[in-house]
């Protein structure tokens, strides 16, 4: 399996770009799932279906994208929703993160 | 371990049943006793540590720690009263019966054990042969990973 690659869109790191906790209404946060050689493909598909309520075909498409390209953009959300999804995905042990969209 | 298909309404809402023999039951319980393996600090909210607010990262770790504690309590209940989960079936067969929420819980627990041992091994590329140096501790960790994965696959048959 492919090594875990770095994100192509590195989130802003300057202090002034950081969102304030009370000002995060925009859907500018990306929820990404990253490839690893340990999570089973069927398991990843199942987790996507449970967390996002996706049909099997859509969940499998994202799972394959993770497997083949190293990552998949799962959804673009507000800070709070993105954080919620990352918590859910990580509770299943998936390598998921949220990144600020540039 | 093998999924026992029931009525469709059962599979979607109610209990899921799996046939399991005595050896598998013993192995499953032995593996589950290893939980938790993955430390809460393993979970990272973002790839870029500079953009992660410390409060939100701490929240994630606390959330994972709370979830692991809840999972551990449920496991302790299972170890105290395994007969609530493992039941005698027809013709001397044993059955593992799970509600849908227990099913998700068991998947998460097994995955923690699998991923946790992979992390302990240094996150090796599992496609390499051998993925890690050959020694007794590594062989044991790999075996636990394989067994956890096998039980996960058997469980996932129910939703395939």
Order of helices and strands of chain B: EHEHHEEHH
Low-confidence stretches of chain A: 1-18
Structural class of chain A: alpha+beta
Shape category of chain B: globular
| Strand order in the sheet with the most strands of chain A | 2-1-3
Work out the helix count of chain B.
Answer: 5
Low-confidence stretches of chain B: none
Structural class of chain B: alpha+beta
- Kindly state the number of beta strands of chain B: 4
Strand and helix order of chain A:
EHHEHE
How far the N terminus sits from the C terminus of chain A, by CA atoms, comes to 29 Å
Mean pLDDT of chain A: 83
Oligomer: heterodimer
Strand content of chain A: 15-25%
Structural overview:
The complex is a heterodimer of chains A (102) and B (160). Chain A is α+β, with helices and mostly antiparallel strands and 102 residues long. Helix content of chain A is 38%, strand content 18%. Chain A is built from 3 helices and 3 strands. Chain A has helices at 41-52, 56-69, 79-91; strands spanning 29-34, 71-77, 96-100. A 3-stranded antiparallel sheet of chain A has the order 2-1-3. The N and C termini of chain A lie far apart (29 Å). The model of chain A is unreliable at 1-18 (pLDDT under 50). Chain B is of the alpha+beta class and 160 residues long. Helix content of chain B is 54%, strand content 10%. Chain B has 5 helices and 4 strands. Chain B has helices at residues 8-13, 22-32, 54-80, 100-120, 136-156; strands spanning 2-4, 16-20, 86-88, 94-98. In chain B, strands 1-2-4-3 form a 4-stranded antiparallel sheet. In chain B, a hairpin with a 5-residue loop joins strand 3 and strand 4. In chain B, helix 4 packs antiparallel against helix 5 (136-156). The longest helix of chain B has 27 residues, at 54-80. The interface between A and B is medium-sized, with 33 and 37 residues.
């Amino acid at each position: 399996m492919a090594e875990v690659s770095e994100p192509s869109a590195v989130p802003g790191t300057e202090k002034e770009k950081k969102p304030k906790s009370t000002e995060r209404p925009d859907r500018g946060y990306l929820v990404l799932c990253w490839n690893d050689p340990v999570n089973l493909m069927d398991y990843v598909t199942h987790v996507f279906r449970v967390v996002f309520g996706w049909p099997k075909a859509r969940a499998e498409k994202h799972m394959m994208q993770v497997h083949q390209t190293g990552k998949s953009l799962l959804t673009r959300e507000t800070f709070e929703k993105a954080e919620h999804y990352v918590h859910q995905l990580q509770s299943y042990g998936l390598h998921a993160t949220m990144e600020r969209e540039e | 371990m093998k999924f026992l298909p029931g009525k469709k309404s059962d599979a979607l809402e109610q209990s899921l049943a799996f046939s399991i023999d005595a050896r598998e039951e013993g192995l499953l319980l032995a593996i589950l006793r290893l939980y938790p393996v993955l430390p809460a600090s393993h979970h990272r909210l973002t790839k870029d540590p500079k953009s992660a607010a410390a409060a939100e990262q701490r929240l994630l770790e606390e959330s994972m720690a709370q979830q692991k504690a809840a999972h551990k309590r449920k496991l302790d209940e299972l170890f105290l009263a395994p007969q609530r989960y493992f039941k005698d079936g027809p013709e001397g067969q044993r059955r593992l019966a799970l509600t849908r929420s227990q099913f998700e819980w068991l998947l998460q627990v097994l995955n923690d054990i699998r991923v946790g041992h992979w992390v302990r091994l240094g996150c090796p590329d599992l496609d390499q042969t051998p993925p890690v140096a050959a020694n007794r501790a590594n062989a044991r960790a790999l075996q636990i990973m394989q067994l956890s994965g096998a039980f996960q696959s058997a469980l996932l048959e129910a939703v395939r």
